[in-house]
Specification:
- The relative contact order is 0.15.
- By secondary structure, this protein is of the alpha/beta class.
- It starts with a helix and ends with a strand.
- The radius of gyration is 17 Å and the shape is globular.
- The chain is built from 11 helices and 7 strands.
- It has helices at residues 3-13, 27-41, 45-52, 56-67, 69-72, 88-97, 111-120, 158-168, 185-207, 211-222, 226-236; strands spanning 78-82, 103-108, 127-130, 143-149, 169-180, 239-246, 251-257.
- Strands 3-2-1-4-5-7-6 form a 7-stranded mixed sheet, sandwiched between helices.
- Bound molecules: S-adenosylmethionine (SAM).
- S-adenosylmethionine binds at residues 31, 34-35, 38, 49, 83-85, 88-89, 108-110, 113, 132-134, 149-151, 154-155.
- The site of S-adenosylmethionine has 22 residues, from helix 2 and helix 6.
Length: 258
């Protein structure tokens, strides 16, 4: 292992890291603040997502589901979409699966977000479960695929989150974590102005709530960089950990196999 990677591994071994909304001092308080934040923006969440991402979020969900086309084409496959929010990642998985119709379950700890997911999916076989991603109410080895879109970054403890995903995957099962990144170069400079100034202002205006859209860029800055995240995945046991940048690295997909 190169020297830099060794140093990174040593640093990772001694750090617990997870989301930390402003003012919180422990993991429980962080989870509570995150749940309250998403519950407060649930009524406007979909609108804001599409406006603030200029609808590119739809492409990212679609691309993520295409990455798991093999698993999704198996009729008996069991799929969990973690931190599912109002359900758009789960809908994309369902569309990709088409007629093979695997069993797709969405889990989230915000009741208000799940209510909206449930309303949007009334005529489908999608099912929703109110659950904390760090304490999932599922048996070991149940799922063939676990995805999470823009949710994992909000967990109070990333290693515990990865360990819980690992636990509920069957051997050979796969995980896909889609989340924001920090693009480099000129694109990065322009994007940072948008992400740190324009987005919080527009988000606050439309949602009528101040905290969440200031928290978003802060949480992305705090999230491990791709190399570190892959090492964290490998430490939990994932094989073939990888990261594929989407749209200049504004977002990206982490993948790993149990
Ligand atoms: C940014 S939203 C993403 C929603 C959806 N996946 C999407 O792509 O639009 C993050 C979601 O993660 C959920 N979440 C955050 N921490 C969680 C946890 N510990 N357990 C379950 N859900 C959690 C929030 O309630 C919220 O609905």
């Amino acid at each position: 292992m190169p020297r830099e990677d060794n140093q990174l591994s040593a640093a990772i071994k001694s750090t617990i890291i997870g989301a930390a909304p402003e003012g919180v001092t422990d993991q429980q308080a962080s989870a509570r603040a995150v749940r309250e934040m998403f519950t407060s923006i649930a009524p406007r969440y979909d609108l804001l997502n599409h406006v603030l991402s200029l609808n590119i979020d739809r492409l990212w969900w679609r691309r993520t589901s295409r990455a798991f086309a093999g698993i999704l084409s198996r009729p008996g496959a069991q799929v969990l979409d973690l931190c599912c929010g109002t359900g758009d990642m789960a809908f994309a998985l369902k569309r990709q699966a088409g007629k093979s119709a695997p069993k797709i379950l969405g889990a989230d700890f915000s009741h208000a977000m799940l209510q909206r997911a449930s309303r949007k999916s009334a005529a489908t076989a999608l099912r929703w479960v109110e659950a904390d991603a760090l304490r999932l109410p599922f048996a070991d080895g149940r799922f063939d695929l676990v995805t999470s879109a823009f949710g994992f970054r909000n967990l109070a403890n990333y290693d515990a989150g990865l360990a819980e995903i690992w636990r509920v995957l069957r051997p050979g099962g796969e995980c896909g974590i889609l989340d924001f990144g920090e693009p480099a170069g000129v694109v990065g400079s322009v994007y940072r102005i948008y992400f740190k100034r324009v987005l919080p202002a527009v988000g606050t205006l439309i949602s009528g709530v101040k905290g969440p859209y200031a928290y978003l860029p802060a949480s992305v800055a705090r999230f491990p960089k791709p190399g570190e995240m892959q090492q964290r995945m490998e430490r939990v046991g994932f094989r073939e950990a990888s990261w594929t940048p989407y749209t200049f690295g504004i977002a990206g997909l982490y993948r790993g196999k149990k």
